[in-house]
Amino acid sequence: MMEPIEIALVWAAAILTLSALSFLFKDNPFFKFAEHTAVGAGAAHWVVMGYGMIRDGAVKPLVQTGQLWLIIPIILGILMFGTYTKWPWLSRYPVAFLVGCGLGVAIRSAIEAQFIGQIRALVLPFVTADPLKTINNLIIVLGTIAVISYFIFAREQKGPFGKVTEVGRIIMMVYFGGAFTTIMFIYISVMLERIAFLLFQWLGLG
Amino acid sequence: MMKQKDEKNMWQRLGDIDVRIIWAIAIVCLIVPFLSPLGTPVIVTEPTKRFAKTIEDLPNGSVVVAQGSVSVAFLGEVFPAMIDTFRQLMSKDLKIVIVSFAEDGPITVGKALDVVKPEALGKKYGRDWVWFGYIAGLEVGMASFAKDLRMLANDFHGTPIKDIPLMQEVKNYEDVDLVIDFNVFLDMCEYSVRQWTVTYKKPLLIATMSSNIPVVISYYQAKQVLGYLNGVRGAAEYEAITGVKGLGMSYSDATAFVVLATIAFMVIGNISLIGKSERRFK
Amino acid sequence: MGTGVQVSLALRRSFPLLLAFLLTMLLLIDYFFAIPEVGPLSKTALSWTSIIAGFALMLGVVAVLTYHGRQIQRRKAGQRFYSAWTIIMFITFAAIGLVLTPSSTAYSLLYMYVLGSIVSTVNGLALFYFISAAYRGLRAKSLVAIVATLSAFFAFLNQAPVGPAIWPPFGMIGTWIWDVPALAGSRGIVIVGGLGLILLGIRAIIGRERGFLR
């Protein structure tokens, strides 16, 4: 048996879901109402989560354990709002912090993760007992090289090099064709979850 | 002359169906499977088997970091997998640290925990599992957390770290035995590979949206990801392995109708194209 | 006067660039050289970045509220009511979240049922456009279109369990497409993406990447 507040929330959710779905017909006041509800609620959530991070990451350790140097990131964070003042260049310092650390953590392991590790995985035997495996390995290695060639823009893509890049383009089309379906599956699942909510939780069928 | 005009109209009509008809058929295909399930068999793939086996083979007392970064915007896609995995984790003698690197991750994690009910599975909060909520900074947040699991002053409920028994044993990446990443964005998969697998050589499992799998496959083939769950289908396969029927199987079954309708429209569109091409040559 | 301009330029451009460079180098040195003194410094830098990111979350909110505040001030017909509603929702959610905390049942229920319903439905709308796109776009008009269409066809049947159930070879073909040619495509793209990231890092280290200064 659902609590009255939960029944009210289910009805609110159903109305908002149907309002959002109404966009299929055309943009209308119900959809706009739902859209602006989402914008306001989403913005509030960012504030709530940001506040939680600052409180638990900086303010509490500063106050409870006396880690005075935590004043520095708090000041840097406040400087972010300098973009709305007469001195917008102040916000460059916290942004530099974010960019510097972000790049540092990304590139130090990208070399192994997205470059060396991937190339190591390309080292596949071209001669195996299974002819199908041999063909597959050839397609993987040569196909990957062809795709990488496609992105070499320093050289004009014509002649034999052009043919290689054309193969790379076709390989990428195989990938994109498959990727299209995988993206569609996401939206099928998302829509199914909503339909399941409307049918079972709201209308009480089944 | 009249017959040629009709045939031309038929091919054009086939290739120019009103989108509202297409959408109406799509809506029917979304509703029907819930009222009359097809019961399509689930074929379990190798990555899902490895996902389940990696968790199953964990020794008692192992520490698992579960990164729940599933956005509510894509709830239907990865949420079933998160529920199923949490259920398996909480059913074993493991220590679990739950954290989110997406802003609404804690909300979906909370909903999954409401479904799984760890206390009913004999798990005690603070001793067997802890929940840290959201850490800002995306990849930097992940890197910071991996380096120091006690970077926050308290857990998601506000309990100070010093009062949580589990966090007296678990300090940083050295104490972690497995990382499982539930996410919806491809970037998150890459952050986990870079920050856990490559930097600290920690085993990694991923449960993510179908659209990210084409890239995750290349990490899986390179043995940087030990196993993965492919969206709703992955959840259905996982349920087939664990024997616990859940949302994965019902959603996966329901996708059949929409897929068949989409393929039918693709075929109709191409028949129309072929028909028009033949008309040109006659 | 000249010195003042130089100091001003240094404060506005050079120092932020230097800060980004030093932080990037700190993390690279920590990773590649494992110097004991550097470890705690990089740990501190990373945790500080998360704290600054918490402030960054709020930055976008200021822009949203400013925009809607202006709409209300301008009394733009129709829009001001929506903008007023946006701000009411913001205040309601923020009050509940900050007072009761986001771990409370009230906040998480409100979030799931209100915001969750809207954003997941709006996302799900894309399904209908995808189906129309599959119908209109996936047509065999050229070699690349044929390749993409066939790949989509087999991927559809492989991804949904109905494919192998109708005819088992659908599953085998679909699996082969994913494990061989599509893998080649995705690996190539991952490698090129990784190269791009490394080059971006090098540009940042040598000070050529100044986009963040704007």
- For the termini of chain B, the CA-CA separation is 13 Å
Structural classification of chain B: alpha/beta
- Round the Cα radius of gyration of chain B to an integer and report it: 23 Å
The main β sheet of chain B shows up as:
6 strands, parallel
Quaternary structure of the protein: heterotrimer
How much is the radius of gyration of chain A in Å? 27 Å
Strand percentage of chain B? 5-15%
Low-confidence stretches of chain A: none
Order of helices and strands of chain A: HHHHHH
Q: Which two chains have the most extensive interface, and how many residues on each?
A: A-C, 116 and 119 residues
The averaged pLDDT of chain A comes out at 90
Tell me the major beta sheet of chain A: none
Give the CA-based shape of chain A. Answer: extended
Strand arrangement, major sheet of chain B:
3-2-1-4-5-6
- The tally of strands of chain A reads 0
**At the third CATH level, what is the topology name of the largest domain in chain B?**
Rossmann fold
Short note summarizing the structure:
Chain A is mainly alpha-helical and 206 residues long. Chain A has 6 helices and no strands. The model of chain A has no long low-confidence stretch (mean pLDDT 90).
Would you mind describing this structure in some detail?
Chain A has a domain at 122-206. Chain A contains six helices and no strands. Chain A has helices at residues 4-21, 29-65, 71-79, 92-121, 131-150, 159-202. Chain B is an alpha/beta fold. Chain B has two domains: 2-36 and 254-281; 46-245, Rossmann fold. In chain B, strands 3-2-1-4-5-6 form a six-stranded parallel beta sheet, sandwiched between helices. The two termini of chain B are 13 Å apart. Helix content of chain C is 86%, strand content 0%. Chain C has helices at residues 2-33, 38-74, 79-100, 105-137, 143-159, 162-166, 168-179, 181-205. The chains are: A mainly alpha (206), B alpha/beta (282), C mainly alpha (214). Chains in contact: A-B, A-C, B-C. The interface between A and C is large, with 116 and 119 residues.
